[in-house]
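User: Batch of two.

Assistant: Item 1 of 2:
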Amino acid sequence: MVQRLNRRSLLRGAGGIAIAMPWLEIMGHPTTARAGRANVARKFVTVYTPGGSVVDNGEGENRWRPTGTENDFELSAILAPLEPVKDKLLVVDGLRMASAVGEQHQAGIIAWLTGTTQQGGGFSGGPSLDQVIATRTLGQYSKTSIQMAVRWGTGKSHGLLDPINAANYEDNENFDPIPPRLDPQAMFEAFFATLDPDNGGEAAARIARKQSILDFVDRRYDSLAPGLGAADKQKIEQHLDKIRELEQALDNDIVASDVCQTPTAVDTSDYDPTTGLESSDTGSVVNESTDAAIPKVGQFMMDMLVMALACEITPVASLQWSDTEAKHTFPWLDLPQHHHYYQHDGGFRPLELEQIQVWYSQQHAYLLGAMDAVDMGGHTLLDESVVFFGSELAQPPSHSKENMPFLVAGGGGGLRGGRFLRNEAIPDNSHNNLLVAILNLFGDDSQVFGDPSYCSGPLSGLT
């Protein structure tokens, strides 16, 4: 159960990193609209789950789509766990991820937040929406964003940043991919080490432990170097440089208040965040202990994400539940094979996939419920936020990008939940238009986002 928190004061805390850049022509121009609007979104969260959903179970039945009308609808079996937060949930159906041009999974995760095509088999051709929001609309009071991931870097990426697992791209001239933070304990130390004002000695010890964790991760990667080629060694060094840069940008000076509380610590000693380094292309290497710990680690990360927003450490956060391969098992669901196996490696398995996706809906409900339990002074954290749930494809066996299973939640910028937004009447409606509409919720009146050839204006109906 999530404890409801009451706010008397909101204290702005840790600084961070923001790499600014000139405005791109394809992104429009800075707007002064934000200053003149009373109701703009203040927090942005993105949540990625792999493999789309069961939009067709092989018998013509869509197990994800609700039934009914815009304002009077019933959630599907897959979305049923979200019933407690239905009034703050917008189910967006009928959009095509047209900008997902490139390798099937890679192009999908790249396009999801950037609205750009994969560049020559590499990364993105533009910044991701979360970074644009962080640097151009919310940067005036916070300089950082947080990216975190659970059981990330499986399969062919072998624990390193790769087009197959990168969802976030910096708002700079190179659109550099951003590696997510993987170690829950390192995150706990980085974000909340000095939050307890009554225990300075313990705070100092936490900071020392944080450094020892970072040193351990460095050594863990270094031990692999002798067996790698020059290209892989360069990838490891680039990965570590970015992690160090992000970690060093955090100051440990946030102060506890009624709204800003230390999340409950969780023992994750049975979870190895670097397991991906030892993964196999096929998913044949299984770390049973780490896979079994995914539920508690995921909840711990969501708790930290919520408090990072509430404590004003950041206004923008991203959570990835694995990568596009998701070659890890689900022992808590009694599913011994990895996710990709149930998608198509072992043939399309809609029943098993539905189990997995129902579980993900349960996690989404937990996150939204936790955000809705934080009282920000007359409204909740969820009320001032926009949460965007997405994937890299719609239908696993065909890798289709039609009728993408998108969810948007919260109340920031006037977003209206409790609705089922269908878009079948608009032929070839690109998801880039949804990205534009979300950006508009933050007070930016741009009419395009990403590649303008896939935009026809902001998607209507969010407010």
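Item 2 of 2:
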Amino acid sequence: MRAALIVEHGSRDNVVVGEYPKPEAGAGEVLVRVKAVSLNHLDIFVRRGIPGRTLELPHISGGDVSGVVAEIGEGVTNVQPGDRVLIDPHISNKGALGEDTTGGLAEYVAVPASNLIPLPDEISFEDAAALPIAYGTAWRMLITRGKLQANETILILGASGGVGNAAVLIAKLAGAKVIAAAGSDDKAQRLKELGADYVINYNTSDFSKEVWTITGKKGADVVVDYTGKATWPKSIKATRFGGRILTCGATTGFEATTDLRYVWVREISIIGSNGWAPEDLHTLLDLVQSGKIKPVIDRVLPLEEIREAHRLIEEREFFGKILITP
């Protein structure tokens, strides 16, 4: 089968499209014919090489996968060949699909049958594949962990990416007032069109001062910062007394400086969030099916353009999700 293969850790030149043995559905497993795969920053990290993590090369990344059941293994009863499905990327006792195990950037992928979620005909493969990692992470971070409430003011950094777009849509659905920050005026304008109440270009403005002005010198009730090192000090300053900072990652570095004076004087809560739960994906599919959420997709590319997809993500030349159709 054709697949996007990481043949060596490092630059995107090390990702090549080639032939790879077609997997088989073992006992309790299902072989899925891949229809759409959504890329994440995680795919970049896997390609570059994650410290302390050893992968057998060549490796296939890609955790956000939708498709059609092609074959079922022994003992599988919850799906049948021909069923449309979304894959939950968290593989029990094995780790993350595409990170710890062989992923979906290929024509076929084999996964445990328990990881399959029925995909209604009304939802496209592309919309479904956009959901798990980005939208699932955003839902858990804002709703389950962050307890975001109607009429609260939330600042979302990195709002033009997959998790950021999802956070904007989910925050608006929750009835919050959204301040969305991005790195260009064009992206800021698109966030406004997406529903953000206020937008900030953090490359031309000090976002903490802008938030202070927007909120009448009170600060945001909730700040979403998964950028990390580059933005963390200002995120703390942008948070109001009794406010909450939510984080699910650190794309610019983990060693972020924390001025503890602001944390104790303002009684700020710093809340970590990691991944999603299966019920979150079911909830998101229901919201997409009912039209309450429409995943933001920047573009859909063929497998042969996998390097271009990596480039777009690394150089931040995208708005929403980038998908691959093997």
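The CA atoms of residues 38 and 323 lie 4 Å apart.
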